[in-house]
# Entry
Amino acid sequence: MAGRGMDTQVIVVGAGPVGLMLAGELRLGGAEVTVLERRRRPSTESRASTVHARTMEILDSRGLLGRLGEPPNEPRGHFGGVPLDLTLPSRYPGQWKVPQTRVEELLAHWATGLGADVRREWDLVELAQDAMSVQITADTSRGPRRLRADYLVGCDGEDSTVRELTGAPFPGWPARRELLRADVAGIDIPNRRFQRLAHGLAIAARNKDGVTRVMVHEFGADPPTFAGTPDFGQLVDRWKRVTGEDISGGEPLWVNSFGDANAQLTRYRDGRVLYAGDAAHRQLPAGGQALNLGLQDAVNLGWKLALRVRGRTADELLDTYHAERHAVGARVLANIRAQALLLLGGPEVEPVRTLLGELIGHERVRARLAGTISGLDIRYPVGPDDPPLVGARLPDVELDTPDGPTSTTALLRAGRGLLLDFATGPVAPPERIVGRWSDRVNGVAAAHRVGAGGDPLSDAPAVLVRPDGYVAWIGSPESGLLDALRRWFGPPNAGR
# Structure
């Protein structure tokens, strides 16, 4: 519980998908969390609509996929508008079409069900930190309110107020090109998948409800000038200049614009203030990568911050959040810069697009690009002698345990560390496996399911897994396990 005059242990600013994902992860880890959101109600603008394979695996590891029903799956994505098969080894290959509004609704229900306190119409206006706490002031419908917490995480988007108030360095490139975007009812135009025409790029996709999402970029247009939201008439004019079609008779449900600005915080952590999602990095939302990158930031940070505020680990564990996610973010931003040039550049980029299309025909090139976009190829920093699976995501493997058949994915749903002991067979009691870390790590004696071919864990005597599903250590329990437990989960509890 919050102590020393604290109102809560962690303040999360922003109740979008990233903030809500983080709130749920913090609650799974036992931390008190208060989420502050300036909006009165959730957004109705479903800006992103793509969930990639790694994010689907994460949602499954939290038992959330059943609530999504059966979203459409598309094995094909793109790189800068050039078609790309995203299929890679995963239970959820390709991309899944889930509106951002649905993701936000799902995560809000999950986080509040776990006990997260979400406060709407709280507009952050002041922020200060010292060696012991973070203090904020927010304008609310009841006047100014103040809160004090151990830590604060800015998840408040690309125009982050937290970032503005702290003055955190945010180097990068300003937007040079933009797309206008809208959901429009009552129009009947052809579907277009990244159609490059003489005067620009046009994208159109009609959903089952008869609403068409349109996006348009005009080659050679001046740099972005819309200080606020463009009006529908501006989009109509550009659409007509690029496609020759008149969509003025449609009903816009919402209209916005986005550019190819590309920037990243120098540090994802500044003392007791941290950042995740678009507050930490700004990029063209190409192929849904921005949303997926942010959700994966939250899952990396949540368990680490929960252990820290509960006093279970040293402060250094939080520094691994920056070390791991800043590198991943930089790599994604680099590929998005390349995509922006391919997607929004004029006729001068056509030779490069043709060459890329030829290169994608080579499996190693295709797999490399698909791994980056899907998030399946992430491997966090490891030692030179570590096995290949260390630092990578835990494969989904069927197992036999004393409690019956299960899978590695199902065993992660508690949101705790996981130690799989294959050396003793499915008989050893959990306390024998994890010892004095039993309040943070679940120990499971397991055996590989008979007949389960291609088991990548078949030669591992024991495997230690972080709560975010990444492998921390593989080996024999007597060889390095205690050091790995201390590194990732803090010192053991006192006692025998």
User: Anything to note?
Assistant: The longest strand covers residues 143-154. The mean pLDDT is 92. The radius of gyration is 24 Å.
